[in-house]
DNA sequence: GTTGAAAATGTATTCGATTACATCCGCATG
DNA sequence: CATGCGGATGTAATCGAATACATTTTCAAC
């Protein structure tokens, strides 16, 4: 009659008492509640799901019992039956990256407004991890996914994939995304530096595997072009978004004798690293070299000097991503779309006029 | 025969085509695989769960079909039957706080080594959120919880709660925790400052609702006592762990004329704020005032000057927490325990000798 | 007092996988 | 040739809740 469950392994030679009962966590069921309330399971279920169709008296009785006994319906059983979980998974490559925090807040806000819960999965840009979380959708443990990485895990389901790409995007037109106009934003940064008199502007790119990084580089080139400046390959470096990468990039540029009075970095952390490298070489920011970042993470306000950067509308990116995902979940027929927001230049202390008298480093 | 499911809402007046089929995501089942492989569902299940008990030939045939059709077993059904999900939820008050990143890495490492997946829940120290995630355990959507906050959500199950407290702890002896010896660590910080000649040491406390903050304050007092210094209430302030709180605290101390040559802050972010406030008042760190933080978040290495701080073994905290949770899940009888690790003083640039000639500010 | 519709509740099926128990087959042994 | 055992597979019960469909109750209208 009773089903054998893989109960807690009892170690045989336990000191305190030979016959420790396999202590299972006690769980209540509708059946139990129904018996106590002297109604059928259907009535209990209805009392909880759609109270209005149950008589006042019965409802109160059932609710009282549920509360007294601390009954929580088994979500697995429910979800199995209803085929939805009201759970979505947000994938982020790196929780240590403060950029994502605000985006996640936005996701969570919209999720809660719509009765969804958010679970975060850190992937460390690791395909295996991504896939494991994506499989949760195929395995029906979650309804959809928002990924903040430029790779779309394969979800083995036919039909519309319940996935939205946030902050990044992929070429595939069938994947909905929200992100900022990176080309325009990067060009704005260069425009601004040019307006301060800079002409020797170095660039620290991010990983070229990411389309948004390619866009930022394109924006940089565009900005130079608009100002009639010829791009100097000796003023370009690449990094992996880390502070250390920013330091290395600047060290590299200085080592190969690149002469520049400003550096534009593809994200704030590299910009922070760049400032450190410059300062440790005895250069002053912004007197000798101006530095501009991208993202506007929280710490950028607190560096010395505070970092001039392109501020992404992080909360809006998150909100919009979740809104789009909910749309897809409600109606798989809605056409996919790429929604492009804009980033805004925030001027702080790390940028200043190019001083004529200061020869490029 | 067929069960009515709350399918995707079809908006009535849709432009493109009146009879859009309610596009459900296509899902395969064991039954389907079994039919194609011409075996019973039991055999399919066995081929996937315990391949060794199925004949070579059958196994290969089934695996081939599973692969070809992209079949993923429905985890809800499986978990319902087996009563375990191999999922654990890690609750953190604030993803923006970089301290937790490393702890989570540790949790994830041990989790993966043991076949568990980790889902993160951000609670913003909000009881309702905490409760919602905790209910996932009662609803059998997750096997256990690790919380990094000093509050234990109630999980309506009898018997041992599958919960572990990491980085923080609560008085309740039945809750297992891992955290550092905050008293000793804080005292160490004071010892160190004393060894540099400081005697007027200010303290910026964290929220007193958190036991670990109380401990850090106690350690501060202990350190002073050991050095024979009388605690000066005018040199104590409180903050909420944010950078801004650190700034305010120092402004407050300075405003009320507190004379000190060193500040010890209950976490790094407040220490960063403290440095900012000092510097913006024209004081030099560490020449005029030494600053010590707590946690050793990643950015502490990159502030100017780099922050001297008490480094928590973040990875170990996470690993240990997950190890303890797995123990509990495997055997609810294991006695609860509080595991105390130790924090280590990391000396960087924000501390220096107390200069005799510099009168306390 | 009927009648009938609406409200309330009950019965039994279903979601998809796992697994206890039953069955069947092949083959070595006596 | 019967016996028995282990390996391979099948049948059907089960997890816990939701709900289609069936039944009963209630009550207003005639």
CATH architecture title of the largest domain in chain A? 3-Layer(aba) Sandwich
Main β-sheet description of chain A: 6 strands, parallel
Q: Which structural class do you get from the secondary structure elements of chain A?
A: alpha/beta
Order of helices and strands of chain A: HHHHEHEHEEEHEHEHEHEEHEE
**Proportion of β residues of chain A?**
5-15%
List how many beta strands of chain A DSSP finds.
Answer: 12
By CATH, the topology of the largest domain in chain A is Rossmann fold
- Biggest interface, CB < 8 A: A-B, 73 and 73 residues
Task: Describe this entry's structure for a reader.
Two copies of one chain form a homodimer. With 361 residues, chain A is of the alpha/beta class. The first copy, chain A, has three domains: 44 residues, 434 Repressor (Amino-terminal Domain); 123 residues, 3-Layer(aba) Sandwich (Rossmann fold); 131 residues, Response regulator (Rossmann fold, 3-Layer(aba) Sandwich). The first copy, chain A, contains eleven helices and twelve strands. In chain A, the strands form two sheets. In chain A, strands 2-1-3-4-5-11 form a six-stranded parallel β-sheet, sandwiched between helices. The first copy, chain A, has a six-stranded mixed β-sheet with strand order 7-6-8-9-10-12, sandwiched between helices. In chain A, α10 links the parallel β8 and β9. At the A-B interface, α4, α5, β2, α6 and α10 of A face α4, α5, β2, α6 and α10 of B. The structure holds a DNA duplex (30 and 30 nucleotides).
């Amino acid at each position: 009659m009773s089903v054998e469950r893989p109960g807690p392994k009892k170690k045989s030679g336990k000191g305190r008492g030979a016959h420790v009962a396999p202590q299972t966590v006690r769980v209540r069921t509708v059946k139990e509640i129904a018996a106590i309330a002297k109604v059928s399971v259907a009535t209990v279920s209805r009392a909880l799901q759609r109270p209005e169709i149950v008589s006042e008296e019965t409802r109160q009785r059932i609710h009282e019992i549920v509360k007294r006994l601390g009954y929580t319906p088994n979500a697995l059983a429910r979800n199995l039956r209803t085929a939805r979980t009201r759970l979505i998974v947000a994938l982020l490559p790196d929780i240590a990256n403060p950029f994502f925090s605000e985006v996640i807040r936005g996701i969570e806000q919209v999720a809660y407004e719509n009765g969804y819960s958010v679970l975060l999965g850190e992937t460390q840009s690791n395909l295996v991890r991504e896939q494991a979380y994506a499989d949760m959708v195929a395995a029906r443990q979650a309804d959809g996914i928002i990924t903040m990485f430029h790779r779309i895990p394969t979800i083995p389901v036919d039909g519309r994939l319940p996935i939205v790409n946030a902050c990044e995007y992929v070429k595939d037109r069938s994947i909905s995304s929200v992100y900022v106009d990176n080309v325009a934003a990067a060009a704005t940064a260069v425009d601004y530096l040019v307006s301060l008199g800079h002409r020797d502007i170095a660039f620290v790119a991010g990983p070229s595997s990411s389309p948004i990084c390619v866009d930022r580089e394109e924006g940089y080139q565009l900005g130079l072009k608009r100002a009639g400046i010829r791009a100097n390959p000796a003023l370009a470096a690449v990094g992996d978004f880390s502070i250390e990468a920013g330091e290395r990039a600047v060290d590299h540029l200085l080592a190969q004798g690149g002469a520049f009075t400003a550096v534009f970095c593809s994200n704030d952390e590299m910009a922070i690293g760049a400032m450190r490298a410059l300062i440790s070489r005895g250069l002053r920011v912004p007197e000798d070299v101006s530095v501009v970042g991208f993202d506007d993470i929280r710490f950028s306000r607190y560096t010395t000097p505070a970092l001039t950067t392109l501020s992404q509308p992080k909360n809006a990116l998150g909100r919009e991503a979740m809104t789009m995902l909910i749309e897809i979940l409600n109606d798989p027929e809605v056409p996919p779309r790429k929604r492009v927001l804009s980033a805004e230049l925030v001027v702080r202390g790390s940028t200043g006029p190019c001083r004529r008298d200061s020869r490029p480093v």
